[in-house]
Amino acid sequence: MKRRQVCLAAALLLAVFALPGCRTAFHAAPLPIQPGGITQVATIDALLAGVYDGHMSLATLKQYGDFGIGTFEGLDGEMILLDGVFYKVRADGKVYLPDLTEKTPFASVTGFEPDIEAAIEKPLDMQAFVELVDGLFPRQNSFCAILVRGDFTRMRTRSVPMQQKPYPPLAEVTKNQPVFDFENISGVLVGFRSPDFVKGVNVPGYHIHFLADDLSGGGHVLNFELKKGLLKMDTDHGWLNIHLPAQSEAFAESDLSSDRSHELESVEKER
Amino acid sequence: MKRRQVCLAAALLLAVFALPGCRTAFHAAPLPIQPGGITQVATIDALLAGVYDGHMSLATLKQYGDFGIGTFEGLDGEMILLDGVFYKVRADGKVYLPDLTEKTPFASVTGFEPDIEAAIEKPLDMQAFVELVDGLFPRQNSFCAILVRGDFTRMRTRSVPMQQKPYPPLAEVTKNQPVFDFENISGVLVGFRSPDFVKGVNVPGYHIHFLADDLSGGGHVLNFELKKGLLKMDTDHGWLNIHLPAQSEAFAESDLSSDRSHELESVEKER
Q1: What distance in Å separates the CA atoms of residue B113 and residue A162, rounded to the nearest whole number?
Q2: Is 0.90 exceeded by the ipTM?
Q3: Which domains does chain A have, with CATH numbers?
């Protein structure tokens, strides 16, 4: 039934675009976009600059993918989108199921279709894990969506406390971020390796969130030791679609011209 | 008739996506994407690095817009896309109509729908023109597509000679670029003002090409003096869609991690 509906949509669209005189087809009403790529909301530098207003509802974001990471309006926690379900790890360390009317100021999603799988049967720390992924998919100018279901001997995450306006820059917020340490926990890593050229727009390199299987915790991953697990990678991304919050005054007025690499480093990594 | 077809497509799509259980809609077959944004092929840094292989046919690119600029496979001239028609200004200074099977290594297009218009009735040099556009649309974090039909007392353009493999970097090519000077010529400026955060991905600031009304010349604009004309700007861009040449070995192997701002400056501007 699902497939038939999708085929119907495709056939109807082809018919419409093939109709004579329909040269303004690209002016048509907004549609969810095509498969095999990454969709992101706003830019990481806007988030670093303190633009925490929600730009897109989770309901809309879901149309662009079933897998991804991000944050919520007001910086109210870390987002994990897994199998089409959103999870929110708030600053209290707990996992919540956000309403689809909630909005995000920054997120990256994809329709996850793994093309590389690897069983991990010996312990790996985060650095060894990065080397494993880089070895399996060395193309550093390509995006790679990363999923690991595994058992972790150690997991260190953080979340971020919800902010009130006027919003401080992200590097200020994360100075006092709550950090969570877990031992012998089963869960899922969800994230991306992004090319260097996304600098300013997204997070170059690895950006990974964690969700415990028993929903006892999660967050933005700072460090871990993986005991064993199953790695799945989706390396087939033909486009990056950046949704620009053109109507946002905060976005319009933020300074997105300076190099925020050092801020990003301080925000993303373990100190 | 056109509008009815477009509305029909929108209604059918909404119906399809609203159907229960259709959660893999974003995995459907490739479609031209939604309106109100910019589509670009590959990245400017890949072009600077010498990746001149064509990644997308003009026929496909046309599905994403009727207006834009770029270049051609092998760096064989400057592209102008105007009212859905591609023009190629080659290194001999002449204007050609490229076949739609030709490919582009780098281009930016949009479905041009101007929302700001201004009659220019007194002479403006390029700097005064930039100040005019910035004044009419000060949002520097937004894209702006720019069209001017006008009479120019002076126009200086350049094109680029077709390259053979192994391709040299763009900054090497433009050291010997043919430059064309025109006096009292009528024509069209086509281009974009892009936000600073596209650094590495596209050209921050102004990037404008020219096409003479009598098709006697054109190219990448280095400088001009506008006598009078009509300026149209499309400032409503809700997304930037970057097509990534994921299958290209040259793209995969190019160094896209270094800061090529100085190379870009030397390539884009008048020396």
Answers
A1: 39
A2: no
A3: 1-30 (no CATH), 37-268 (3.30.1330.80)
